[in-house]
Amino acid sequence: MGNQKIYKSFDEAVMDIRSHSSVMIGGFGGSGGQPTRLMLALSKRDIKGLTIIGNVAGISETTGYGWPKNSKPIDQGIFFKKGIANKIICSFPVPASQNPKSHIEKFWLENKDSVEIVPQGTLIEKIRSAGAGIPAFYTSTGVGTIIEKQKEIKFFGKKKYLLEHALSADFALIRANVADENGNLQFLGTSRAFSPAMATASKITIVEVDEIVKVGDLDPNNIHTLGVHINRIVKRRKNDMYP
């Protein structure tokens, strides 16, 4: 019997993501450690109403931001282009004065989707809190701004704070450099941004990796995410056209 965590294809790994699921996308932004192959596989699913959660969205496909030359930029806008998502929660949805407009911005302007903007530090803390079993926390970030609207406010001493709730998801799609057969992960560069926290805050975590090694081959002191948080592993092909 083979390892039940290791999947042969990206399509198979995302096959049970259904309509109206919430999906976290790891990485910092652009080609910075995002799970591109898993994103492409998900974009082909015949579903609708997804809520996408990630740091940055809608800045790569039309600008090429963060992508090597001669590569095809992909970002979370692909889910809106395909019509399978209608909400995104992120810290940076679109760059200013982008022309042509991203698919997320087009949908936003046409009131076809919902964009929820969360300060970057608050976003990662909301995700981390969900993974740690912390239902909510107070922060001073956003006080006196539009972020303050409809938030519970509390004073500690003379300082004002906003109540933020933890943020979990049905699925997390993340990218790592190396996984062992039990799902213990090592990240490289910006793939480590958001992905470790997302792995703990989702019901099912799916990871695409460059290499899979035997259990015991990874230095225990350099394991960034424990395999207990990982449900599925898919290995990328060598010399993949996508970063």
Structure report:
This protein is an alpha/beta fold. The model has no long low-confidence stretch (mean pLDDT 89). The relative contact order is 0.19. The protein is 18% helix and 27% strand. The longest helix has 13 residues, at 120-132. Strands 1, 2, 3, 4, 5, 9, 10, 11 and 12 form a nine-stranded mixed sheet that branches. The chain has a three-stranded antiparallel sheet with strand order 6-8-7. It has a domain at 20-117 and 168-235: Glutaconate Coenzyme A-transferase, CATH 3.40.1080. The protein has helices spanning 10-13, 36-43, 77-81, 103-109, 120-132, 195-201; strands spanning 6-7, 22-25, 50-53, 85-90, 114-117, 136-139, 153-156, 159-165, 169-180, 185-186, 202-213, 232-235.
Characteristics:
single chain, 243 residues, alpha/beta, Glutaconate Coenzyme A-transferase, nine-stranded mixed β-sheet, three-stranded antiparallel β-sheet, globular
Can you give the helix content as a percent range? 10-25%
CATH superfamily of the domain at 20-117 and 168-235, called what?
Answer: Glutaconate Coenzyme A-transferase
By CATH, the topology of the domain at 20-117 and 168-235 is: Glutaconate Coenzyme A-transferase
Secondary-structure element order, N to C: EHEHEHEHEHEEEEEHEE
Beta-strand fraction estimate: 25-35%
Average pLDDT for all residues: 89
Can you lay out the helices and strands and say which pair or pack?
Elements: E1 6-7, H1 10-13, E2 22-25, H2 36-43, E3 50-53, H3 77-81, E4 85-90, H4 103-109, E5 114-117, H5 120-132, E6 136-139, E7 153-156, E8 159-165, E9 169-180, E10 185-186, H6 195-201, E11 202-213, E12 232-235
Parallel strand pairs: 1-12, 2-3, 2-9, 3-4, 4-5, 9-11, 11-12
Antiparallel strand pairs: 6-8, 7-8, 9-10
